[in-house]
Amino acid sequence: MSSPGAAAALWLAAFAFAGCRVVKPGDPLLGLTREQRDRFERGRAVFDSVFTPETGLGPLFNSTACGECHEDPKSGGTGDEVEVHATAFRGGVCDPLVQEGGPVIQQHTTPALKQALGIDAEPFPPSATARAMRTTPVIFGRGLLDLVPDSVILSYADPDDKNHDGISGRVNRNVDGRIGRFGRKALVPTLREFNDGAFVAEQGVTNPSVPTEETIGGKPIPGGVDPVADPEINQDQLDLTNDFVRFLGAPTPERLGGEGRRGREIFSRIGCAACHVPMLRTGASPVAALRSKDVAAYTDLLLHDMGPDLADICLGLATPAEFRTEPLIGLRSVKTFLHDGRAATPEQAIQDHGGEAAGARDRFQALPPAERQALIAFLKSL
Ligand code: HEC
Ligand code: HEC
Fold first, then answer.
1. Residue 18, pLDDT above cutoff 50
2. How far apart are CA 324 and CA 311, in angstroms?
3. Whose CA is nearest to atom 10 of ligand 1?
4. How high is the pLDDT of residue 209?
5. Would you state the pLDDT for residue 7?
6. 367 vs 66, 260, 278, 321, 360, CA distance in Å?
7. 81: closest CA among 92, 91, 96, 66?
8. CA 132 – ligand 1 centroid, Å
9. CB of 297 within 8 A of CB of 72?
């Protein structure tokens, strides 16, 4: 075993093994069983499959496939589609405007619907008090976020700011009282519910969990416009998609050099980590690859008031100015930042933080240029 060839082969094997332990954007979790890996691959095929009116698309839709929006750099990533959402906030109460087609206002119609009603998009709800633009987020590592126990999220909440750090943080809740965590306003409690709902809200594809179509601005779909029998996909296709999404790994942060390590310290020192909690731990799961795992999440999954400049719609208990701390998982794949993509760089995103995050923003602005640069180098490693 002492020949140079054998040593090189051993070194290569060790290198390949180490390489295997790294999750790249779009890769599955480490440690899936063969069967789970197989379901991940088959689920990706459903996630990427393009629907047509003949296979259930529409009559209202935003795009033709999950993977048309969540596409960059791999399925499950980001994309350039921007959605329109609308709700009404009156007297402190949020109305999702379901009776007028809210909160997601689809931007496309099938040819049959266009012919029947002469519209290219769902009409904007007349009672809306705000319009929100929503860019497509990366959904890497969401299966891990799904399994962070509610008790952990609640442990970070400080709705009355009892520790006087200027940061409160509170949970959103679904209509039935369950704690929400998915979507930029953290309304949806579980990953499965988000995925099941996305088929209908984004593609007009009904499924066993959500068996009826969206209305057209609150009005029923004209007869003959959508002849495909509901549900338009079956339980197997739905379960496979859910497995693909929940088995998507959180990309391993790139190895930090000296500058990046300094940036990581500055991130904590100036208070970014008060909301972007660096590490969360998952709870129980029958899937070993998801059970009791640390995830470099950089979120507390709570709502924070981000100030009037970022404010748009209310959703559930979230007021117009409140947003969920965006996880920074896979940030290196993100192309435009903040909920509506208004920030072209991470620096701009920080500069646009207001409200509860104003203190951290001001401390960032006051840093010497080399320290600001170190913080950005750290962010780009995520
Ligand atoms: C038209 C583009 C588009 C399509 C198609 C689409 N999505 Fe999304 N996705 C988005 C946007 C925009 C959001 C953010 C929504 C929000 O914050 O309210 C999102 C959010 C998500 C989230 C929540 C991420 C988080 O951090 O909370 C998941 C999970 C998700 N999508 C899965 C899917 C699945 C599964 C499909 C297919 C059934 C799908 N998406 C189809 C644009 C799209
Ligand atoms: C009070 C809580 C809070 C603090 C403190 C905070 N953030 Fe944020 N951060 C958020 C919220 C909420 C969002 C999502 C806002 C939105 O989408 O409009 C966000 C979004 C971001 C984004 C954009 C992510 C994306 O994918 O679009 C970056 C980058 C970011 N924060 C970095 C930082 C850094 C660096 C600091 C410290 C200087 C910091 N944040 C401090 C709550 C906070």
1. no
2. 12
3. 136
4. 98
5. 54
6. 41, 15, 21, 27, 11
7. 66
8. 15
9. no
Report in angstroms the alpha-carbon separations of 286 from 283, 289, 290, 371.
10, 9, 8, 43
Measured between alpha carbons, how far is residue 250 from residues 1, 120, 305 in Å? 38, 37, 27
Query: For residue 107, how many other CB atoms are within 10 A of its CB?
Result: 16
Residue 138 pLDDT: 98
Locate tokens 């750099």: which residue?
73
pLDDT of residue 2: 45
User: How far lies 344's CA from each of 140, 336, 352, in Å?
Assistant: 21, 5, 11
C-beta neighbour count of 111 within 10 angstroms? 11
Pocket of ligand 1 (CB under 6 A): 62-63, 66, 68-70, 81, 83, 134, 136-137, 139, 142, 182-184, 191, 194-195, 198-199, 202-203, 241, 245
Q: Given CA atoms 121, 192, 156, 31 in this order, what sign does their dihedral have?
A: negative
When pLDDT is averaged across residues 64-85 and rounded to a whole number, the result is: 97
* Ligand nearest to C-alpha 305: 2
359-376 tens-digit pLDDT: 999 999 999 999 999 999
Q: Looking at the CA of 65, name the nearest ligand.
A: 1
The tokens for 24 are: 């790249």
Mean pLDDT of 5-13: 53
**Residue the block writes with tokens 């296979």:** 55
Nearest Cα neighbor of 166 from 307, 323, 346 is: 307
Query: pLDDT tens digit string along 98-135?
Result: 999 999 999 999 999 999 999 999 999 999 999 999 99
Q: How far is the centre of ligand 2, averaged over its atoms, from the C-alpha of 375 (Å)?
A: 13
Measure the CA–CA gap between 324 and 166, rounded to whole angstroms: 16
Asked if residues 25 and 333 have their Cβ atoms less than 8 Å apart, the reply is yes
Lining ligand 2 with CB less than 6 A are: 167, 184, 267, 270-272, 274-276, 304, 306, 310, 323, 325-326, 334, 337-339, 346, 349-350, 353, 356-357, 360-361, 364, 379
Q: Which ligand is nearest to the CA of 44?
A: 1
